[in-house]
């Protein structure tokens, strides 16, 4: 492993200051970072630890009905929290379908949003062609094994998919991250947190040097209780999504007032399905309406030969998730 020092700040201000150095990286639960350090995919000179009480881990409903989750909360604690299970069951489901119980007990929710792609070429230091690791080196996935890769938001430089399950319902629910950095605090919608690869695939988020995610807020949404997270994967434990769908429906009488739909495993970032949502506005929740809306799931997709199967899978996953939550109307 590449040599590094470990800094243990006791407060956020010091952590942000230490993390602002160009050769520093943050570590919290460490479940992704340790793999990347071991394989020397990441080579920080200084690691700045955010565990040990630096990050808030409180979870609770705020005045007005929004849900606030401290970024230091463990995935398992959020998944099992009564307020999360009651107000936003799709968030709990997405977490429980992530990784393994051991990882969920260690990993923080802030770190989960910042995990790196699972592209096999990115994670194999023996592969030279990876623009995300070394800009200009090429992309081995373009004509290689791209079955798990993205079909939305890709560029000619990178087709990696975003791996977080947790981020998918957050995008659907208009969640935002609270960030603290050397220049102060700011709020970033989760939908704006991750960047498309474009010409700079090595840049994955809009976070600036030294900025730390301190909390995640989900605004009140009446449709949160009528929601589900469907994950399609090659095996039922510890596997990343081929395709996933987060769906929440707010009803008014026997019609859909507002639908929220996002997908995982298919985009360079967690992908909000605006076309699907528009097709569901003010319609009766029946199979015909769900089928017509699900057809919009693959709008704008640009598949490679190895992942073209995802387009049909996306439509089927959205349809099935809609049937699951719409069947109780
Ligand atoms: Fe690297 Fe992206 Fe290509 Fe994977 S898809 S090899 S991460 S450039």
Structural features, described:
The chain has 329 residues and is of the alpha+beta class. Among the domains are: 5-49, Uridine Diphospho-n-acetylenolpyruvylglucosamine Reductase, domain 2; 59-114 and 170-218, Uridine Diphospho-n-acetylenolpyruvylglucosamine Reductase, domain 3. 27% of the residues lie in helices and 20% in strands. The protein is globular and about 60 Å long. The protein starts with a strand and ends with a helix. The mean pLDDT is 96. The chain binds iron/sulfur cluster (SF4). Iron/sulfur cluster (SF4) is lined by residues 117, 119, 121-122, 130-132, 139-141, 158-160, 201. It is an enzyme of class 1 (oxidoreductase).
Overview features:
329 residues, Uridine Diphospho-n-acetylenolpyruvylglucosamine Reductase, domain 2, five-stranded antiparallel beta sheet, four-stranded antiparallel beta sheet, 12 helices, binds iron/sulfur cluster
Give the topology.
Elements: E1 5-7, H1 12-19, E2 24-27, H2 33-38, E3 46-49, E4 59-61, E5 67-70, H3 75-80, H4 82-87, H5 89-96, H6 101-106, H7 109-113, H8 167-172, E6 176-181, E7 184-189, H9 190-193, E8 212-218, E9 227-232, E10 243-252, E11 255-264, E12 271-272, H10 274-280, H11 287-294, H12 309-326
Parallel strand pairs: 1-3, 2-3
Antiparallel strand pairs: 4-5, 5-8, 6-7, 6-8, 9-10, 10-11, 11-12
Helix pairs in contact: 10-11, 11-12
GO molecular function: FAD binding; xanthine dehydrogenase activity
Protein name: Xanthine dehydrogenase YagS FAD-binding subunit
EC number: 1.17.1.4
């Amino acid at each position: 492993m590449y040599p590094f020092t470990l800094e243990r700040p006791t407060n956020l201000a010091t952590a942000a200051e230490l993390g602002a150095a160009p050769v520093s990286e943050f570590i919290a639960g460490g479940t992704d970072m340790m793999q990347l350090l071991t394989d020397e995919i990441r080579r920080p000179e200084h690691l700045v630890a955010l565990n040990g009480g630096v990050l808030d881990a409180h979870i609770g409903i705020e005045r007005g009905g929004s849900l606030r989750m401290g970024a230091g909360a463990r995935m398992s604690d959020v998944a099992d929290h009564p307020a999360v299970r009651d107000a936003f069951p799709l968030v709990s489901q997405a977490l429980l379908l992530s990784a393994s119980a051991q990882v969920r007990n260690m990993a923080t929710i802030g770190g989960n949003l910042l995990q790196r792609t699972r592209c096999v070429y990115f994670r194999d230091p023996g592969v030279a062609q990876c623009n995300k690791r070394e800009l200009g080196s090429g992309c081995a996935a373009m004509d290689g094994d791209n079955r798990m890769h993205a079909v939305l938001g890709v560029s000619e430089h990178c087709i990696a998919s975003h791996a977080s399950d947790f981020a998918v319902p957050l995008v659907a629910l208009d969640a935002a991250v609270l960030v603290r950095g050397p220049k102060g605090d700011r709020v970033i919608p989760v939908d704006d947190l991750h960047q498309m690869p474009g010409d700079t695939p090595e840049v994955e988020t809009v976070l600036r040097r030294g900025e730390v995610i301190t909390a995640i807020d989900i605004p009140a949404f009446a449709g949160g209780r009528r929601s589900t997270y469907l994950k399609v994967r090659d095996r039922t434990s510890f596997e990343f999504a081929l395709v996933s769908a987060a769906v929440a429906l707010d009803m008014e009488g026997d019609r859909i007032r507002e639908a929220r739909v996002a997908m995982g495993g298919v985009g360079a970032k967690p992908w909000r399905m605006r076309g699907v949502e528009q097709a569901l506005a003010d319609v009766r929740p029946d199979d015909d309406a769900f089928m017509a809306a699900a057809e919009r799931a693959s709008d704008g997709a640009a598949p490679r030969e190895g992942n073209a199967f995802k387009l049909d899978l996306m439509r089927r996953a959205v349809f099935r998730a809609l049937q699951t939550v719409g069947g109780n109307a």
